[in-house]
């Protein structure tokens, strides 16, 4: 059985490196690449790969929301997170979104292949470093979690917030989401009201702090 993959990462050099690795493996085929979350979701729905290897910090839609949407709207597609982020906030949100595994980007090729084979057999795969993060989070888990952007805002509001933070205009956001400018304005007002933040600069800082966008070049 050949494992069909989509590579989702906003850095071309990372995608090229991953493709080079997988071209040497007989039972793995890269069927598509995506550089942002929205494109990843679209390709996953269209091509129905076995696994999406997902970065977290991507433009237009972050990897956490893209994972949540793929898991909810496609059948049998699994997601493996491959990210530079290794703190508990990102790990727990990604696993909560339905990812089948989580690896840091400095993992070995052998570990990445092992994660693929684990995911394809419906097993959860965590690298040793990530396992430690998950255990620590569990041991220090408080009865009441602090609210986060993923509990305060809706998925659509997070999409709008991310694009606002990335400097897109209201017209550009409306075009990308296929909604009216008035709808985007309404979302913006709701975001500001829910977060009690009333300037784009502060919203941008908040989005970066919460992992909605990294604004990496």
Structure description:
The structure is a single chain. With 217 residues, this protein is an alpha/beta fold. It folds into 2 domains: 3-139, Response regulator (Rossmann fold, 3-Layer(aba) Sandwich), CATH 3.40.50; 149-209, Winged helix-like DNA-binding domain superfamily/Winged helix DNA-binding domain (Arc Repressor Mutant, subunit A). The protein contains 11 helices and 6 strands. Strands 2-1-3-4-5-6 form a 6-stranded parallel β-sheet, with helices on both faces. Strand 3 (51-54), helix 3 (63-73) and strand 4 (78-83) form a beta-alpha-beta unit. Helix 3 (63-73) packs parallel to helix 4. The radius of gyration is 17 Å and the shape is globular. The protein starts with a strand and ends in an 8-residue tail after the last helix.
Characterize this entry briefly.
With 217 residues, the protein is an alpha/beta fold.
Structurally, the number of domains stands at 2
Shape: globular
Q: Strand order within the widest sheet?
A: 2-1-3-4-5-6
H-E string: EHEHEHEHEHEHHHHHH
CATH topology annotation of the largest domain: Rossmann fold
Largest sheet: 6 strands, parallel
CATH top level of the largest domain? Alpha Beta
Q: Radius of gyration over alpha carbons? A: 17 Å
Number of strands: 6
N- and C-termini, Cα separation: 38 Å
**What fraction, in percent, of the residue positions are helical?**
40-55%
The quaternary organization reads as single chain
Rounded mean pLDDT is: 92
Low-confidence sequence ranges: none
Tally of DSSP helical segments: 11
> What's the CATH architecture of the largest domain?
3-Layer(aba) Sandwich
**Secondary-structure-derived class:** alpha/beta
Percent of sequence in beta strands: 5-15%
Please identify which CATH superfamily of the largest domain we are dealing with.
Response regulator
């Amino acid at each position: 059985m050949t494992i069909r993959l989509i590579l989702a990462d906003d850095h071309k050099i990372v995608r090229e490196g991953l493709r080079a690795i997988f071209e040497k493996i007989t039972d793995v085929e890269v069927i598509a690449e995506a550089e942002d979350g929205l494109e990843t979701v679209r390709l996953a729905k269209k091509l129905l790969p076995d696994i999406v290897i997902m970065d977290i910090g991507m433009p237009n839609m972050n990897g956490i929301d893209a994972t949540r949407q793929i898991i909810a709207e496609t059948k049998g597609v699994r997601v493996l997170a491959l990210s530079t982020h290794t703190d508990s906030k990102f790990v727990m949100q990604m696993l909560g979104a339905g990812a089948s595994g989580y690896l840091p980007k400095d993992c070995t090729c052998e570990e990445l292949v092992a994660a693929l084979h684990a995911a394809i057999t419906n097993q959860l795969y965590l690298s040793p470093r990530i396992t430690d993060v998950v255990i620590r989070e569990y041991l220090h888990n408080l009865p009441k979690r602090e609210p986060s952007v993923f509990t305060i805002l809706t998925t659509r509001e997070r999409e709008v917030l991310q694009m606002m933070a990335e400097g897109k205009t209201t017209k550009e956001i409306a075009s990308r989401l296929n909604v009216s400018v008035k709808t985007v304005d309404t979302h913006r007002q709701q975001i500001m009201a829910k977060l009690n933040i009333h300037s784009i600069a502060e919203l941008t800082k908040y989005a970066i702090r919460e992992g909605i966008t990294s604004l990496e070049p």
